[in-house]
Write a structure and sequence with these properties.
It is a single chain. With 115 residues, this protein is mainly beta. The protein is 0% helix and 53% strand. The protein has no helices and eleven strands. The termini are far apart. The mean pLDDT is 93.
């Protein structure tokens, strides 16, 4: 069974940084596109960043220039470096990967930006 496990969430001050990691486990899983969504309380889940198997990236407008998505294909791991964090970045962050069997989601990790 394929699982995605996030780590690296927590509490950060405004202007601070956090790095999220998401590692895939399970035999035979090889993700092509991977990415991150987030969901704030009372809001719908929204796409934050995407990276394709070829390394092309795309970002939500409000995080451009502050967040960077990257991946280690050999390790089936995707990262989200978040700099210049703002209170409105507070949310549960979910990673996902698209493999042969479709999209697989992680369980989510809480990111809280507060002074």
């Amino acid at each position: 069974q394929v699982k995605l496990v996030e780590s690296g969430g927590g509490l950060a001050q405004p202007g601070g940084s956090l790095r999220l990691s998401c590692a895939a486990s399970g035999s035979g899983f090889s993700a092509n596109t991977m990415g991150w969504h987030r969901q704030a309380p009372g809001k719908e889940r929204e796409l934050v960043a995407v990276i394709t198997g070829g390394g092309n990236t795309n970002y939500k407008d409000s995080v451009k220039g502050r967040f960077t998505i990257s991946r280690d294909t050999a390790k089936n791991t995707v990262y989200l470096q978040m700099n210049s964090l703002k209170p409105e970045d507070t949310a549960v962050y979910y990673c996902w990967g698209v493999g042969a069997g479709g999209r697989v989601w992680g369980q989510g990790t809480q990111v809280t930006v507060s002074s």
